[in-house]
């Protein structure tokens, strides 16, 4: 390994996660931490890594934006025909990771994924900037492109034909991850990090502390 990588180190000293400070409800705990990230004005505070696995057991991960959440689940939007969409069709389970280095906090969520109701996807699609809506309607996400010029021309042609008056395409919409497991991680000095895990058992959330 290169010396500069081996020597790169940051000590986590900002906070600690005591048992008495953890809510018994992981959804409330998530909401508390997420609001802390928002109030800190972190760039892309709603950015998270989404990991999926295909039918051959091969994983892949990418950065997405969380667009809504509640006790029903955690929502994101994409092209259903993209690689992540195909993965979720074959294996409807995924993992999310939120990492806020400025706060030395991390949240992991694992669970089953379902498509959102079409009406919900319609509503969100129409709230997006028109340029983003055009891109979603035109881009064959995850497909091989001959070049960028063809893609830009397709967007231009779409704009000439439809302007700003077009609906959500059937191949684009939302998903909801329904949690079965949470982990809240708080960085601590000397890598003795705090880790609190919640596991859903018989419709009840059981929490415990994990070794760092």
Structure, explained:
The chain is of the alpha+beta class and 212 residues long. It has a single domain, classed as Pnp Oxidase, Chain A (Roll). It is built from 6 helices and 9 strands; from the N terminus they run ααββββαββαααβββ. Strands 1, 2, 3, 4, 5, 6, 7, 8 and 9 form a 9-stranded antiparallel beta sheet that branches. The protein is globular. The mean pLDDT is 96.
Quick one: CATH class? Mainly Beta
Give the beta-strand count: 9
User: What's the domain count?
Assistant: 1
Strand content: 25-35%
Main beta sheet: 9 strands, antiparallel
Count of runs of 4 or more consecutive helical residues: 6
Q: Look at the structure and name the CATH superfamily.
A: Electron Transport, Fmn-binding Protein, Chain A
Helical content, roughly? 25-40%
Structural class: alpha+beta
* Mean pLDDT rating: 96
**CATH architecture classification:** Roll
The succession of helices and strands, N to C, reads: HHEEEEHEEHHHEEE
Distance linking N and C termini: 24 Å
Describe the global form: globular
Show the helix and strand layout.
Blueprint: H1 3-6, H2 26-39, E1 47-53, E2 59-65, E3 68-70, E4 73-79, H3 83-90, E5 93-100, E6 105-115, H4 118-127, H5 130-138, H6 148-162, E7 172-186, E8 194-201, E9 204-209
Antiparallel strand pairs: 1-2, 1-5, 3-4, 4-7, 5-6, 6-7, 7-8, 8-9
